[in-house]
Structures are given as C-alpha cells and as structure tokens.
Amino acid sequence: HVKKRIGLTFSIKNEMGIQQEDVTLKQLLSHADPDHATLLEGLRYRLKSNVYQISKINRENKYLLSASIEHVHGLINLFLKDDSKTDIRYEGTGLISRPADEHRVLDFQI
Question: Is the predicted pLDDT of residue 28 greater than 60, yes or no?
Fold first, then answer.
C-alpha cells in the first residue's frame, strides 16, 4: 500500500506541477480547483478523524491489556504466595510451574 500511495502522490504532484519532494494532502488542496479541494478537504478530515480514533482505541487496549495481565499476575501470586519457592520446568508445551507441596493450590501453564 505504501508503494501505491507513493506512486499516486508522485503522479498527482507531477500532474499539478508541484516541485516539492514530499507533498501532503493539505498542500495538494492549495493547488486543486475549488470543487476538488472541497472533496479532498472532506477526505482529509475523515482520515485525520480515523487516525485519531484508531490511536485512542490502541491506547485504551494497551491499558486494558496491561491491567488484565496485572490482575492475572496478582491472582497467581495470591495462590502461590510470594514467599513460596517454585520449581520451574520448561517443556515442549510451554512453561510449567509447580509450587512447593504445601502450596499446590494452583498448577498453571503459559
């Protein structure tokens, strides 16, 4: 998609006679006829709005994921007790942790 965008940008700036190497949609608006400028301004606004919404959702997801991991970690520590020593073995299926005999409330696999 990036190559296609660069190719289209190159074609548009050559067609409009723009000499700048990097051209933005806002700069294209100043060279476009009024009808196309209005259409492009609407597209520019929608693109900026979509980028803002995606960025906001990504930040929220990052926070939720971090909070979920912290919650699971807290629950595991509750069952294992921080003072217990664990015997950790790596097997083909992942990490298996076996707590000491007196703390065998939880066996988990990651």
Answer: yes
